[in-house]
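$ fold --in a.seq
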Amino acid sequence: MKNVGGPKTIAFVILLGFVLMTDSCSKSSDSTSSLSPSVTTNVSAESTSQSLTSEAADISNSVTSNTGNGVLSGSRMEKIVIPGATAASWDPRLVCATVTISPAAGSTKDNPQGTIIIYYDSTATCKDAIGVQRKGTINIAYSGQRFAIASTRVLTFQDYSRNGVKITGTYTISNRTDSTASAPLQYLHVLANGKLTFVNGKSITRNHIYTFVWTRGNTPGGDSFAIKAGSTATGSTEDGTSYSVNVSSDLTYTLPCLLQKIFIPVTGNKTLELGTSTYSINYGTGTCDNVITVSLGSGPAQSITLTSDGN
């Protein structure tokens, strides 16, 4: 068992993790809003469940992107242990983690197979640079080169939590396009039996099927990302209210806004059905801000400034 040393270039996908980490974690700070407290809480609950599960998925993207197919195939050594100090040079969210890569027998560079364990010590008090504390384990079963068509990564969680919010479920990421193609890269994100349990003991459930697209720009800073129209989610909120989400027009993120620490979509729409009511959520027309508008049916739109507390 050996350690891998030396920093690597941070993959662009890491920025994506911070996008997803804060997508719609919302709570109204507009005192004039006519949305009831229970509605704003439930909007926040749905958004938090999406953001935290997606962040865990993107941490796996970060590891597989930076280790490379040679390491994942086992061509260099049988098992690799990567300390947090090294992993943090790829992704600051890994500073408190130990990453262990175990290629499977018969794994090759062209078709790597194996498992990755991302372990955050449950007894430690370590936090990342923005004060987030993670504990427990993210297990990843990988198959195929990350950018190869039909490659997959399947995530499961063992006593894993983020700032005390425990996450369970199975998260599968499948590549649907060849990296040599000129078309945007497409990934299918499927969360099954997702559940978040908060420090107050209440919980949210979630299942989602997202088509995620990465469009590479022709100029620096020209890349964009989108959760495609038709992507869906279902579950129940903390108070037991059932919900369903449908992305009605692409939820698009841009690099310039990411660099300004605006981590929510800058355009796009989705509908959120809470019980018997349907809310329309609009992310704007491209301005780098943290404001969305929410409306019930044909009623007036109310502004909500998004935060990350999920309450």
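$ fold --in b.seq
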Amino acid sequence: MKRTVLMEYQVSVIIVNYNTTEVLEDCIKSVKEKTTGLNYEIIVVDNNSEKGSLAALQEKYTDVRFHFSEENLGFGRANNLGVTKAKGKYLFLLNPDTLLINNAISILFNFIENNPEVGICGGNLYEKDLSPALSYYEMGSHSRYTKEWLTILDRSRPKGYHDDNRIKDVRAIIGADLFIRKGLFDTLGGFDPDFFMYFEELHLCDKARELGYRIVSVPEAQIIHIGGAAAENKNEELHKWSYQEHWYSKFIYFHKTEGSFKTALIYYGHILKLGIATLVYSIKKSPEKLNYWKTKSEVMRKTYKRYQIYRQSI
């Protein structure tokens, strides 16, 4: 006789922390204050933060399950670890720098429960001032490669911001608030460990869609995402680890989905754009802008070399 395994919780909320104690506590508070009508658990996976930094939170929130990694696993691998501890039917992968505005988790749970063809969904994200934040990747008619190529010179605001309350199919949900069936996550093998941070959610959603599942944005669920704020000093932003890691993950993503040749075309297309900008501001004798574009070009070349090392290692 086949044994039926019962899920203990409806939703497992998984939060990955890395030295974000203050915002993490605010995030946990918002989940507890806003979530009603749902049997859920909260799991915090700590990515080898400063020793003892979470001791006070552990003592205060005894019902939250804390798991500590001996190394910084990055976003995807840390969530994978959290999922191995999860007992919920669904997973809600939530960034620590988020605050629930309403009963978002229950809204997403009820939506996916009533729509079995939906594999992944997410809510509407907002900046601290409640202006719209990037919430999803728009569905497009172009291939992943072609769409990226066509937007190289497009400086307009990226799509993925809700301007109405329509539920709609999208290409991918931003990883800050990704709600997914646990069975589907397990079937997909979780996040690809080759991604340390960035683009892993896009890759996961691609694979879910290939299995026939819908990816849906549910704007009724509302969440503040503090991390969406832009840096004041753009030149300093180029030197940040996060900027370089973003491009490294982008190269890996295109390598996995389009191949090394098209990845190279994307890279050289950007280098061409950067070279033109450098020339223009050199002629205009604008030192600040010239330095910005030269720095951006140097960072791009350095990151692409790192990708080439990765490509040779696989």
